[in-house]
Design brief:
5-stranded antiparallel β-sheet; 8-stranded mixed β-sheet; alpha+beta; 31% strand
């Protein structure tokens, strides 16, 4: 049973000096059994990952890549759903006629359709160190070609943009290469590989979730047009020179050519690199691409979307996109479509490169989150979701006003891509959400205008929650990072908590993405105080509005959210009846020497890059301890559930274990689940399932739900 699985994981804690867990009583067994059935319905809701649109003789065709948790195999199941699109211009209706069943891509690491949609590349990476990587090229009816690449030639292949590429002549091994694109074809000019390259200093820090690593856009000649040969010069003794195209800027990634090939666009996280924040407000730039193929490393970099420090109310808050579509261009060739965070939502933006006009393409009055999946000519295929609604495909039809400005009329498709189970539909049917504006405290201490503005918190509740005049118990959700954001999008696990009777308060404290660079940069050097106060302000605001019962409030967070969770139960020991922390940062002093991102500890503690050293001083260690949750351990009395991954390199398990032992020493009720094969995200299907099952049972116990 699920209860026994949880028990087995807890028993592994004996080796860390905790007590053996007693057998579950019959009531607990029944609750685990009941909750396990419901959470499975939520965990196995499919995700819409990517989409492609192709124009064939019979009209536009859609191909959608989806994935779903496979609890038995503890992996993500990948599958493809295809269909054709029909449009009725008279009533502006659109329908996707899906194939009767999706096609599972068993064993596929990646699948990429050709631009025409006539062929499909399937990549199968090996599960061991001996077998080759397999490349398969499929047509509509059969396998056309198959290539096996031995591991001595090339290891596993990744298409997520951050994998390493096989070394080619001219690229120094000190550069980690990713996001490779071809330069435009031009008669008589050289063909180039253009890519993002990350330079390793004396030590390479972790890069996952870290956009503060210096990177540049490079180009290297791949074909010699003057020789008349289209073959790569693999056998040449001399390598082609490598060109750094973005020397004057500290960050450049996601290279993309304009439709006419005259410009090379790229994203930059220079605010993160220059300041030290692991993520920051991004910018978009372009450089001219020479028609003769003669590159210059002194090319002028033109700002298309600059960094926004302090946005005016209701205006664009800055760019937070991290990546671009492979073909984001409308038919005019100069309008670019992209998705970005805008406060607590994700929105679709339209950028006119000629006029510089940036506008919101998704509905202005929508508090849902929108992401562009693909373009159908000048129309948009997008995915839309909210905390109370599962992802749905929406179709945006372009319309132009008399002044020539484009906008999009958004249509529901008549045939949804998937249908939720009856239990999920029932659980979501009475839920509603709204975004709260919460005034910040200690405004006088803020240095910038942008850091004085209200924060946002997403409040999710049942429309029936106050029928008897009593509020449902509240779960306060704090995201990690800290420079991340919790958007108004669908979360399977949080929707599950909502469906069993909890209201949610999802807090985007100062330091979050989506609110301008001033607000983001106000947090470093003040972690454990400013962010804690912001969360407490949001909780108090909800109580004052009558949205929460102060006697039934719990708190949940992971990573930096776990840092805040353990800070909150120490600094506000009477506020929360229960807590759950997932791979939490509990002690910066013990983390700094063993994490893969020690620079994060210094930056968040001091607020600058200058203090970093491989040999922290006694003063450094004292500051780390002072700013850590463990400095408040003597005040904690909240029963707390810990969920820890044994192979976490970001916040190694010893950090949580030390805090757990300290709580047990002073008699605080603690429960610990250890996942032997999980790293920082704790996102493998079985881990996700068991984590939130135990969180629900833990909160139910103390909220008497």
């Amino acid at each position: 049973s699920v209860a026994k699985v949880g028990l087995q994981d807890q028993l592994t804690m004996d080796s860390y000096g905790t007590d053996t867990v007693k057998e579950l009583d019959q009531t607990s067994e029944e609750e685990y059994a009941t909750q396990s059935k419901l959470i499975k319905e939520f965990i196995t809701i499919p995700s819409i990952d990517k989409a492609w649109i192709f124009n064939s003789g019979s009209g536009p065709q859609a191909m959608v890549a989806m994935s779903q948790a496979n609890l038995l195999a503890n992996k993500r199941r990948k599958f493809m759903l295809s269909g054709h699109i029909s449009k009725e211009s008279s009533n502006l209706s659109v329908n996707f006629h899906w194939a009767p069943f999706p096609v599972e891509m068993t064993g596929a690491s990646a699948f990429v359709p050709s631009p025409s949609g006539l062929k499909l590349l399937v990549v199968r990476n090996p599960d061991d160190k001996e077998s080759p990587t397999k490349f398969e090229i499929w047509s509509s009816s059969h396998l056309e070609k198959e290539f096996h690449i031995p591991q001595k030639v090339h290891g596993s292949v990744y298409v997520d943009g951050c994998g390493e590429v096989e070394h080619i002549k001219g690229v120094p091994r000190s550069i980690s290469v990713g996001q490779v694109v071809w330069s435009p074809s031009s008669k008589g000019s050289a063909k180039y590989l253009v890519f993002a390259g990350w330079l390793g200093d004396k030590r390479k820090f972790g890069i996952k979730y870290c956009y503060n690593r210096p990177c540049s856009i490079y180009a290297i000649k791949f074909r010699d047009a003057s020789s008349g040969s289209d073959e790569p010069k693999d056998n040449a003794k001399e390598a082609f020179p490598i060109h750094n195209l973005t020397k004057s800027i500290s960050s450049g990634f996601s290279p993309l050519f304009s439709k006419d090939g005259k410009f090379l666009l790229f994203l930059s996280a220079k605010t993160a690199v220059d300041s030290g924040a692991h993520w920051g407000t991004e910018s978009l730039h372009k450089i001219n691409w020479p028609s003769d193929g003669k590159l210059s490393e002194l090319a002028d970099i033109v700002d298309l979307i600059p960094v926004v420090n302090c946005p005016d109310d209701g205006c664009f808050p800055g760019l937070y996109v991290t990546g671009l579509l492979s073909d984001p261009w409308l038919s005019d060739g100069h309008t670019l479509m992209l998705s970005s965070y805008w406060h607590s939502c994700r929105v679709i933006l339209s950028l006119n490169m000629l006029s510089g006009e940036l506008s919101r393409a998704s509905p202005n009055d929508s508090d849902c989150s929108w992401s562009v999946l693909a373009l159908d000519g000048d129309d948009i295929v997008a995915v839309c979701s909210s905390p109370v609604s599962v992802p749905e495909i929406k179709y945006g039809k372009k319309v132009v006003d008399p002044a020539g400005r484009p906008s999009w009329q958004w249509l529901d498709i008549q045939n949804p891509i998937f249908k939720s189970s009856e239990k999920v539909t029932s659980g979501l049917s009475s839920l509603e959400f709204k975004i709260l504006k919460v005034p910040v405290s200690n405004v006088s201490e803020c240095l910038t205008k942008g850091a004085k503005k209200p924060i946002e918190a997403i409040y999710v509740s049942s429309s029936k929650s106050k029928e008897n005049g009593i509020c449902d118990p509240l779960v306060v959700i704090v995201h990690g990072g800290p420079h991340s954001v919790a958007p108004c999008s669908f979360s399977k696990t949080l929707a599950y908590l909502s469906s069993i009777g909890y209201s949610l308060l999802i807090v985007n404290y100062r330091g979050s993405l989506g609110f301008g660079e001033d607000a983001l940069q106000s947090l470093p050097g003040k972690v454990g105080s400013q962010d804690v106060n912001d969360v407490l302000s949001a909780v108090d605001h909800a109580v004052e509005m009558g949205l929460a019962d102060p006697s039934r409030i719990t708190v949940l967070g992971g990573s930096h959210g776990g840092f805040l969770t353990t800070h909150l139960i120490g600094q506000a020991p009477n506020k929360f009846v229960a807590a759950a922390a997932r791979n939490p940062v509990c002690n910066l002093a013990s983390m700094v020497g063993i994490t893969d991102i020690p620079d994060w500890c210094f930056f968040e503690a001091y607020g600058d890059r200058t203090h970093y050293t491989e040999a922290p001083s006694p003063e450094d260690m004292s500051r780390f301890h002072q700013m850590s949750p463990i400095s408040h351990i003597s005040k904690v009395k909240t029963p707390t559930l810990f969920l820890l991954g044994t192979v976490d390199l970001r916040v190694p398990i010893s950090n949580g274990i030390q805090y757990v032992r300290a709580l047990k020493e002073k008699g605080v009720e603690v429960k610990v689940l250890v996942f032997p094969n999980d790293n920082h995200p704790l996102d493998r299907p079985q881990t996700d399932y068991e984590s939130f099952l135990n969180i629900a049972v833990w909160f139910n116990k103390y909220c008497k739900l």
